[in-house]
Amino acid sequence: MQAEPGSFGTLPPPKAESKDGLEIVKTKPSGKPKMPPGFLMPFNVIGDDDRTEIEDTSDFPNRSICFLRITFADGSTGTGTGWLVAPRTVISAGHCVFDHPTGGRVISVEVTPGACRKKTAPFGSYLTTQVACSEAWQKDGWKLNQPDVHDHDYGAIFLNEDSRVGELLGYFGYQDIQTEILQSRPFCLCGYPSDKAKHSQWYHVRNLSGVNERNLSYEIDTYFGQSGAPVWYVGKDGNRFVVGVHNAGSSRANFATRLNDPVFQQIKTWRAQGS
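User: That's the sequence. What structure does it adopt?
Assistant: Structure tokens below.
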């Protein structure tokens, strides 16, 4: 197991009862993990919609979750979700920074931390052209029907040198954690689904339904716009540790790239670039 802690920033620290639906070190047993097959899509609401809106994003970690406005290589636009992992580094899905169907590397990304229905940009918006993705995603990310292609669907967005917003707002920790622990506790996923009001932030908490070496699966409800959202738990000291990057779904489950050792090391490199 390896972990890199996050930061609460210079704004007030999170309250003991967090707004991510997770009590500190809350555990709940889960059933035997099973990775469901099926065609991969970037969203799925499974059964009833159990998501909850975060109406006030002034607290950590919600202020460190970012609404993304993406301009793709062909000039079209879309939205996504990212999360601060350093003063200037935002992690998201690979297809939010390098999208093969629209021509590859995106033109730009506008990053808005803590966007919510009441305040579109409570901490400002930051336009950047600096992005990166895993080498495997850049090479093979066009194979959208291949179940294993999303193993590598993660990337990074780098804010400009004068936009060290993570120092103020705080940023997530991240962890390569044992399978047994992944199977034993609930996790939170939070982001900006496009089926809800524009800029509104929503979360859902559940145990994982499946774990393998490269992916996590769950029945946490998601939708278009939540690609790149963090999947995390709360540590003993209140630190939020991300264990997966949401990027896909099927008719039976939604999926995240697991922070195994190669992913962990890549994010560590990207964090250093934005520190």
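The chain has one domain: 2-273.
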